[in-house]
Design a protein that fits this description.
Layout: E1 2-8, H1 15-28, E2 32-37, H2 53-64, E3 70-73, H3 75-79, H4 85-95, E4 100-106, H5 119-125, E5 127-132, E6 147-151, H6 159-167, H7 178-187
Parallel strand pairs: 1-2, 1-4, 2-3, 4-5, 5-6
């Protein structure tokens, strides 16, 4: 059984996240891709206000609703504290030791792999899936990692821009599915 972990802050998640997850699942023949919501994204703490983990999980649940093979995961929220990919992999492998685990990241984020907590442990227990966008130069092949590359269309969508648009009262239709927009509105996020 192959599973993909697509972790992040998801503040908010958007259609670009869906495109990347679906492409990785299809290209690698994965049984499921879990969009794993960070409880406390330690590399972002202090850089900006971060919505509660419960709000971000509700957004991801709305994002993946009805999309086969994608799931919202609260594994890092249930564990509490700072979120580390190495811990998530260890927990998933403890549940199913023969499970192949693939960590999905944007190719631009691969440059930060050396800054990950216990990166050597992640490299030893999972393969890396680099999501490439046309026109965005990817990093050099990461040394020592087992990896695959997945191409997706270039989508100029970012969570930062969506937060800015909501705060300014601008529309976000087409950037997020209607269910995600409804959760943002119902919870009064990003105002």
């Amino acid at each position: 059984m192959g599973i993909g972990i697509f972790g992040g802050t998801f503040d908010p998640p958007h259609v670009g996240h869906v495109v990347a997850a679906v492409a990785a699942r299809h290209e690698l023949g994965l049984d499921q891709v879990l969009l794993t919501v960070a409880n406390r994204p330690w590399q972002k703490v202090g850089s900006r206000a971060i919505s509660s983990a419960a709000d971000r999980l509700a957004l991801v649940e709305a994002l993946v609703d009805g999309i086969g093979g994608l799931g919202a995961s609260a594994i890092e929220i249930h564990r509490g504290g700072d979120s580390y990919t190495a811990d998530t992999i260890a927990e998933l492998r403890a549940e199913a030791p023969d499970r192949q685990v693939h960590v999905i990241v944007g190719s631009d984020a691969a440059a930060a792999l050396p800054s990950w907590a216990r990166a050597d442990e992640v490299r030893a227990t999972a393969s890396l899936v680099l999501v490439d966008r046309p026109g965005v130069p990817g990093p050099a092949t990461p040394d020592g990692w087992t990896f695959a590359r997945v191409d997706i269309p270039r989508l100029d969508i970012s969570s930062t821009d969506i937060r800015r648009r909501v705060a300014a009262g601008e529309p976000i239709d087409g950037l997020v599915p209607p269910r995600v927009r409804s959760v943002i509105e119902a919870r009064g996020l990003y105002r």
